Amino acid sequence: MTRGHQRVPFPLGGIISLLGVLLASVVVYDLYADIVVQNNRPLTALLENSLPLALNAGIIASGFWLTQHDNRDISKQAVIWTGISITSLLLLAVWVYSLQLIQGQLKPLILLAQIASMGAVAGIVVGVYSGRQNHRQRELQSLFQNSRDCIAKVQFENETPLIQEVNPAFESMFGYTTDDAAGESLDELIVDSQSKRQATELSRRARGGEQFETEVTRTTASGDSRIFRLQALPIDTGRTTTHVYAVYTDITDSKRHTKRVNALHSATRELISAETPEEVAQRGIQAVSNILELPLSSIFAERAGTLEPVASSEAAKELFDEIDTLDPEKSVAWRVYESGQPVKAADITQVETIQNPQTPIASEMILPLSEYGVLIIGDTEAGEFDDEDFTLAQILGDNISTSLNRVDREQRLRAREQELREQNERLETFTSVVSHDLQNPLSVATGYTELAQQESGETEALEKVEQALERMNSLIDELLTLAQQGESIDEKEPILLDRVASKAWETAATEQATLEIIDDGQFNGDRNRIQQLLENLFRNAVEHGGASVTVTVGAIDSDGFYVEDDGPGIPADTRETVFDHGYTTSETGTGFGLPIVNEIVEAHGGTISVLEGHDGGARFEIRDLETSN
Questions:
Q1: CB 138 within 8 A of CB 116
Q2: Are the CB atoms for 288 and 315 separated by under 8 Å?
Q3: N or C terminus of the chain: which is more exposed, having fewer CB within 10 Å?
Q4: Domains by residue range for the chain, with CATH
Q5: Is the dihedral of CA 524, 526, 527, 532 positive or negative?
Q6: What tens digit of pLDDT does each residue of 459-496 get?
Q7: 623 and 606 in contact (C-beta within 8 Å)?
């Protein structure tokens, strides 16, 4: 394919050619007059007019060349400067000649000097202008040659963008030198079939003088498809444009990174919504393919001292007949699992320990998945992973680990909730049995005992029966209370310590006992249960400290309170067992009072501890209650 050239309309270059013909005609007439009319020697006449004839011939040839080859700008400037120079010289000659005629004396030397001065000025102006243009051209050429962007200088022939020159960056990226590309259509050289329509439209816009920027896909000589930001920079922004700089900035890596990051965000959302470890593993494998575009991956879980495969990509299943369990002594993956440090092997043959030396995997990345196992990503080509691959793989591994831990917590929570539901069902059954199946016959036995006392007069034996029945009734009440206080609390309300303590004291203590409220406090909870807690602690103090015991209640920091008495206290070696069901040191106690207290505290999310009081008695501290703002 040959380069095309834009013809310049005749009036531009033709004007200069006609001028040359006119001037040549004047010289030829002068030559004729010297030889024929004045009978001068022909050789002298020819020598006199040879230089003008040569100059005139050059003017004619220049005009013809501009007509055939150069563009409108150069031809236009040539015509303008030619006209300015001739006009200036003629005006100067007329001015000087006129003044000499007025003076009555012609001075050829002065006329010649003036004309030479005008020519010198014209030469200086044109020289400065030409020098500045050359300097600008050198700067543009330097930018063209040294730019990191790929640049092609294009000239349009009709609608076809023909390459005139390409810079080194273009040669390096696309694989075509200027010698290879010159005269070729830019669209035919680097545009694939899918982008032809877009390329045609872009050429039309550039041909119309539009300067624009857009995103395109272009193909290199090796067939590699890459993404560029294309800038069209017309040299002439008139109605039509013949020369354009096409500037290509490679954004393939940037677009690839953005795509990967978006895929990572999408995969994270998918992992968050998974509900089982198996589902997390499957979605993690899919994420490897979507983010890293690597088809070979597997997730291994720790089972009984080995790493067993739990999820693998389809490509991995096809490559291996069976994905083996990884042996701790022969597997790098086990060291990664134990250390928690990821490994990237560009060439797996350089790894010291390989479980299967015949493996088709040439390079791999191994990422720890917390306590669960490892993620292995492989490739059949050596050195296929770059730093971005490894970084994204680590982030993905962390996200998979987080999702696995979350699923494990949720499963344990669901199991605990199920256990609590079953426990509550058993408690409800127990409560029903105690309240109906035991209390009813107990009430009957109590009634017949009273009747027997009235009819027989035998009181001693029947009093013992009555005491036993009363103890059984107390045990039933305590058991029912214990079953109810362990239930969860749905709603809490602000509770003032002094008020609930005073109310509990009214129902739990004897007239001889004393209550002292030292510090008031406020917290959130179930008012009835907190009152039950205090009543039990007050009864415990009276039961073990005597009817005249003094009980002190006060706040602890902002999230708890204490109940302390001046009784005999609780031995240090038994403080851990006082909350056990049925434990009591009192002959009349049921052993359920303090366990009920413990159940109420736990239902509120708090903690309780037993200490020695300031006066040697027992001190119960309840902490970590929900505070009121």
A1: no
A2: no
A3: C
A4: 12-142 (no CATH), 147-256 (3.30.450.20), 257-413 (3.30.450.40), 490-623 (3.30.565.10)
A5: negative
A6: 666 666 666 666 566 556 655 655 555 555 667 899 99
A7: yes
